[in-house]
Amino acid sequence: MKLRETVLQATYSLQANKLRSWLTTMGVAVGVFSIIAVMTALQAVDRSVASGLSSLGSNTFEIQKYPATFFGGHGRSRFINRPDITYDEGLAFKKLMRGKAKNIGIQVSSSGNLATYENLSTNPDVLLFGADVNFASANGFDIETGRNLVENDILYSRNVALIGHDLLNTLFPTGENPVGKSIKVNGKVCRIVGVFTKKGAAFGESQDNLVIIPITRYLAHINVKRSISITIEAFSQKEYQATIDRAIGAMRVARGLTIEKPNNFELRTNEALVDSFRDFQRTISIGAFIISFMALVTAGVGIMNIMLVSVTERTREIGIRKSIGAPRTSIMRQFLLEALFLSLTGGLIGILAGASAGNIVAIAFNIPPILPVAWVIISIAVCSGIGISFGIFPAYKAAMLDPVDALRSR
Question: Residue 348's closest CA among 390, 387, 403?
Answer without folding.
Answer: 387
